Amino acid sequence: MDNKDVISVLNDLIETSKDGEKGFAECADDVKEPRLQSFFVQRAQDCASAAAELQQLVRSLGGDPETSSSVSGALHRGWVDLKSMITGKSTEAILNECERGEDAALKSYRSALEKDLPASVRSVLEQQLQGVQRNHDQVKALRDSARAS
Question: What residue numbers bound the domain in which 26 lies?
């Protein structure tokens, strides 16, 4: 892959990270339980850090980094807002939507890692994928716990 293609892949993942940041921040606003609020705030900060790391990689490759979330992420958040107005903002419903967002993030990272990326970029993406997987697994566990309650 040439630099332009690598930059494009990274910019797509910056949008994904920004989607996660905004999604987790909205979840923090929507839940009532302080422990969950804290969890979501920390995950939003983790996503912001991941985006910043990717933006630095883009700059190091001579590109202009993406600075916003994706249109599809904004549409998903709008759908979640509409759905929660209709069904109420139960903890389980919020966690379900959060897990769907993390499913999308996992798919984006895995797709990016299927490409022929420079080793330095691949290393960062593999490390970030582990963080996305951890987020997903934690959200799923929290959702399962909320469902069981």
Answer: 3-148
SS3 label, residue 114: coil
Question: Cα angle vertex 130, ends 97, 119, to 5°?
Answer: 130
Closest CA to 107 of 131, 132, 83, 127: 132
Q: How many separate domains does the chain show?
A: 1
With b meaning 16 or more CB within 10 Å and e meaning fewer, what string describes 47-74? bbebbeebbebbeebebebbeebbeebe
Q: Which residue has the tokens 């969950």?
A: 36
Tens digits of residue pLDDT in 54-95: 999 999 999 999 886 655 555 555 555 555 555 567 888 888
In whole angstroms, what is the distance from residue 73 CA to residue 130 CA? 21
- For 11-48, the pLDDT digits (tens) are 999 999 998 898 899 889 888 899 999 999 999 999 99
Please state the length of the chain. Answer: 149
State the CATH number of the domain containing residue 36: 1.20.1260.10
Q: Are 47 and 20 in contact (CB under 8 A)?
A: yes
- The tokens for 8 are 């494009």
Q: pTM, whole model, 2 decimals?
A: 0.86
